[in-house]
Amino acid sequence: MRKFVPLLVVLALLVSPTLTFAQGGGDHPLAGQTIDMAILGIGGWIPSSLAVDLATSQFAPYALENYGYTVNFTFQEAPFSNLFQKAATSLATGSQEFNIIVSDSQWLGALAEPGWIVNISDLIASGHPEFDIEWFDPVVSQAYQYYPDGSDTIWGLPETGDVVVLYVNKEMLLNPDERAAFSAEYGWELPATYEDWYDIDFDQFEQIAAFFTRPEEDLYGTAMQYSKEYDFMTMFLYPFMFSMGGDIWDPATGDVYGILNSDVNAAAMEVNRRWLNYQPPGALNYGIPDVVDVFTQDKVFSGFQWAAMGAGMIPPGTEDKYMVVVPPGYRMEDGSVRRIYSIGGQPWVINAFNDEAHMRVALDFLTWWYLPETQLAFAEGGGNPATAAAMNAEGFEDINVWNRAYKDMLTEQTARDFWHEPTYSEMLAIQQEGWTAYASGQVNDAMNTLNWIACQQQEILYDAGRTTTDAPAECENINLE
Amino acid sequence: MQHVKSPELATTVTPQPWWTRLGHALDRRERALPTMLLVPVLLFFIIWNVIPTLWMLGLSFYKWTLTSGRPEQFIGFENFQDIITDNSVWLSFSKTLIWVFGTVSIEVILGMLLGLLFWGSAKLPGRRLALTLLFAPMMITPVAASIFFRLMYDPTFGVISYIIAQLTGQAAPNLIGDRATAFAAVLAVDVWMWTPFMILITLAALGSVPKAELEAAEIDKLSWFKKIRYVILPNGKFILMLGILLRTIDSFKTMDLIFSLTRGGPGNTTELIAITLYRKSFEAFNLGWASSLAVILLLTAIAFTSIYLFVLNRKQAEEA
């Protein structure tokens, strides 16, 4: 047998290029090689894990067939609050431990400024027009792509879009007895159809939530997030501020003081805290999974939650029991309802320290990711694509129960992101502290809390050289108390 | 034998026999061996303790945020000044002191009571099994324990909340989500975890009491209280004090247990100083400021320990 070995080796060498060409990857520089790719994503977050599942189950065979190389994906994960820490500590050492990262949109500045991620604008200019993609709405680029805010320099590519939607227990809502009791008590009809929810404002929703709040039956009107973890409280307070006409800063000047600490934002904080009356005890600690728990166990009539959690909020087989609608908004003087909610979702970012082979596979993967069929497969798996092609495709709204509300809310008029600054984490930690202190009743002066946050954030931006406006002198005397 | 003082005298010194020289060489080698054995430990200590501590000390004088993309900037004592004038730090610090006092006191009292009970029930069948079960909580990692209790406290399916609801006839409370109960609920978990440690220490202290003195106390028919006061405490005091010291230091550092249970919430209700430090380091990435706080905490812990040891040593000296 041993004497045949050299012959077999020669035969194998002769045959392997033939096989490679037969697989269609003959001209690819990586043809015939095996590449291990690591994706860092959010643990327990369906869009992250779904993307890696698709990479393994669909991209790997696609790459072998079209490019002739074998690719193996591993998924490294961390919860929201720890993911950046995991990414930053690795990238700070120039490591290519994670070849592609599912980043949060607010981290773009922090990842871009030290040069840790690939500048996609440069990539497009250098002969990769495939990444110049038509998105569903300009808000997609604003949230997941651009840094600095207001520029058009692209650093990320949307992995999943996401918005806050309202999940409603349809069985309770359409129950004739409940409807009759509600109209007898409040003098107007509970909304019944999806379209009815377009016209529901904060005051009306408060009445609905109050109506379904029955502690003696262990039932509450609604649930949303107030947790101090990561950005949980922030993301569910902003909708009150934005919808009521408040703002958080001026990206052009970097001014926070005088914008964030406004009367309208203080009023928004009061409404947000008052709504705790219609939520289960302990809602102050609620994060994403807690809202899933109480909603799926019928402890609450409704839940404000990310569209990306749709598969968790509406387990398979219960689609008829629930409906997903646009959340309530602020009634304007002209009678219209203004709803501007926080935008969630995450972009892909590419590790700038990838070697040539890993960079090539990363680009191949992302090219494949934005193929219309991949985007639809992502949607069918429960993900939320953001390309115009996928979201405008016929039947997109019917793929998942939440798709219609997702599509309605993913617009410039209804969704807004916040700072993409490198100082993001510092600024976030300050307001999470202030707002949770107010929500918990530890402090009771909303305006003073806003003053304190605005002072701290102004100082952070000024110290980091991101603005020429320093915190005013009166900040010296403002404390969180 | 004379020491060599000058070249002239040196010529007059009788050379040492080879066995004496060999003996000296072995002596020197014997002295070198312990030093050589210490080298790996010292190296480990220097690499993993001394250098990071010095690094942290240096960083505490700089303004540096990991994510800013800007170089470190030397700012002297500005970070320390910020911390001292920061109300939220003082709030966390005061909560930490309440936490340390609360947990250590309850654990010491419960631990000593249970320890005495176990000591007095030496012939009880199943005592060993009971002891093993009793020590299990302190062997569990704090994160696992907190997840365990998070589930038990859960108002939807938690067994503790269920029992309270049945007893009170009210809706199940969310013990760790309510500002009124969160601190006590978290403190109870720490007591559950670490009371066994104080039982162990109490049993060790009781074991150190000379049998003769115990027998004398029996013969004199001393009451339980007097036996503890005049026989057990004087003999076992040092071990008990060591246990209290260890628990105090450990309790001051509590982070993982609370972070997994409440993340310092609701609001700031359960935010101890170690959690504030974590937030500033790994959520805000303000590493300069966080290093300053770490230095202050390190100095505080050293100060507490030194005062404690000073008092203990002084009392011992007085008694001697």
User: What percent of the residues of chain A sit in helical stretches (DSSP H or I)?
Assistant: 40-55%
The share of residues in helices of chain B is: over 70%
Largest sheet of chain A: 5 strands, mixed
Task: Indicate the CATH architecture of one domain in chain B.
Answer: Orthogonal Bundle
The biggest chain-chain interface is:
A-B, 51 and 34 residues
Q: If you compute it from the alpha carbons, what radius of gyration of chain B comes out, rounded to the nearest whole angstrom? A: 28 Å
Secondary-structure element order of chain B, as H and E?
HHEEHHHHHHHHHHH
Written description of the protein model:
- The complex is a heterodimer of chains A (481) and B (320).
- Chain A is an alpha/beta fold.
- Chain A has two domains: 16-161 and 345-411, D-Maltodextrin-Binding Protein, domain 2; 164-342, D-Maltodextrin-Binding Protein, domain 2 (3-Layer(aba) Sandwich), CATH 3.40.190.10.
- Chain A has helices at residues 5-22, 46-66, 80-91, 108-112, 120-125, 138-144, 170-173, 176-186, 202-212, 232-243, 263-274, 288-296, 310-313, 356-369, 372-380, 388-391, 396-399, 403-409, 424-439, 446-463; strands spanning 34-42, 70-78, 100-102, 157-160, 164-169, 302-306, 322-325, 330-331, 337-338, 341-342, 346-350, 415-416.
- In chain A, the strands form four sheets. A five-stranded mixed beta sheet of chain A has the order 2-1-3-11-4, sandwiched between helices. Chain A has a three-stranded antiparallel beta sheet with strand order 6-5-7.
- Residues 1-23 of chain A have low confidence and may be disordered.
- With 320 residues, chain B is an all-alpha fold.
- Chain B has a domain at 86-285: MetI-like fold (Orthogonal Bundle), CATH 1.10.3720.10.
- Chain B is built from 13 helices and two strands, in the order H-H-E-E-H-H-H-H-H-H-H-H-H-H-H.
- A two-stranded antiparallel ribbon of chain B has the order 1-2.
- In chain B, helix 3 (78-84) packs across helix 13.
- Chain B is flat, with a radius of gyration of 28 Å.
- The chains are: A alpha/beta (481), B mainly alpha (320).
- Chains A and B meet through helix 3 and helix 19 of A and helix 12 of B.
